[in-house]
Specification:
Elements: H1 6-16, H2 21-30, H3 47-77, H4 83-90, H5 92-99, H6 101-129, E1 133-138, H7 143-154, E2 161-163, H8 171-180, E3 187-191, H9 199-207, E4 211-214, H10 228-235, H11 237-241, E5 247-250, E6 265-267, E7 271-272, E8 275-283, E9 286-293, E10 296-302, H12 310-322, H13 327-336, E11 345-349, E12 352-357, H14 363-375, E13 380-385, H15 395-407, E14 413-417, H16 422-431, E15 437-441, H17 444-449, H18 451-454, E16 459-464
Helix pairs in contact: 1-2, 1-3, 3-4, 3-5, 6-8, 7-12, 7-13, 12-13, 14-15, 15-16
Length: 472
Amino acid sequence: MYRLRFAQTIIYMLQATEYDVKTYLGWLWRVKDFEKVSYRRSLIKTRRSSMLLLAIKLGMLVQFVVAIAWATLAIKNKEPNGIFAVDLFLSTPLVWSHLVVLPLVLARWFWVQPLNRVDVGRSKKSFEKHQAIKIAVAGSYGKTTMKEILYTVLSSDSKKVAATPANKNVAISHAQFAKQLEGDEDILIIEFGEGAPGDVAAFCRTVKPSIGIICGLAPAHLDKYKTLQAAGEDIFSLADYLGHKNIYVNGESEALKSFLKPGHQLYDGRQAAGWAIKAAKSSINGLSFEMTKAGKSLKIKSQLIGEHQIGPLALAAALADKLGLTKEQIEKGISRVESFEHRMQPRQVDGAYIIDDTYNGNIDGMLAGLKLLKSLPAKRKIYVTPGLVDQGSESPAIHQRLGKAIAGSDADLIVLMKHSVTDDIVAGIKQGKFKGELKIEKDPLNFYTNLDQFVAAGDLVLMQNDWPDNYN
């Protein structure tokens, strides 16, 4: 705490928590060793971070100088209250690690939130006027992948398509997206996040979608949603807004099934919006399958891997057909879909295949990846994970379930990154009677950095999820 890098560590913590005061303070109060905080990543210099870093350094310097001057005068004048100068000196890191949030809170109250309300209000009018078909994509997971698939498939010579960038899925992101629209787009694809109860309903009132897709439901953000039921109700407010018409639901997400109502259309590995799926084949090089409906047929080939991708690809094809794209445009669009960064992304290292699924943060996705690992041939199969975050009170049960699935994946070696959920995963692995090698890695950064030295030709490595520094 009294090291020279303390100020930089504090600003890194703010940046890593996206300047969310509550999350930052929760992390701050948990930290036992500030030297280990920015272990895997470091502060990225931006205008905001640089200004805050300068402010906290100056503030700490002033407090140190005042404390030293006070102590010097007290000693010189033999004043007993000089003892408080020691308290002032020692409290400097504690004071400024908390005081640094004050400008953020004040700026949010008096500047950011008022401006955001204005921008969101303007975006509501912009979306109302826009004549494009608006597709909303919601769910605890799979939103960004579904959105990117749709964008790639629907973009063609005959359709102008725009989509919210990356994983930007909150009200102000939608407002910024609306500002960039040219007005002549045929299709808009908007990702809906669910940060707190009422969010999805509010997004619907602003965007006014005409088609809705619900990708999945899993424990996430349970600090805001007290139960999985509450999270599901918020997500399905998209279906309520659409009158339960033109709503497409992932049939492979078990948690969604209790929310299904007449009018909802399912998509999964067998069918999508009335299209039948057959002859599905999966390999490390991609997927292929056929779709048929009322005399129509599509032959789908994609670079994406994992059978859990069949449903989203098939739905994108079905919607493309519904929106007037030709067979050739649809098949070509699907073939253009590439693996997404850190989402079941295969690469080769010295003859070994690495499947990077480190952005996977939900149990359904983890199980799908393990199913793929079991199905693919390899000389040696290696599975790597730290576990999942934000699972709330369900965390022990979820991680024991994950452990059992890992044990049944035919992995030869399991590498667990040492974290707070490791014991639960190990308990599940033992219940699954795993007979291979189990390794607990205490230095994840070293492991990932030197992965090429760890694997050999013919190995297949599946890496799932990654924990940021603010989790332990």
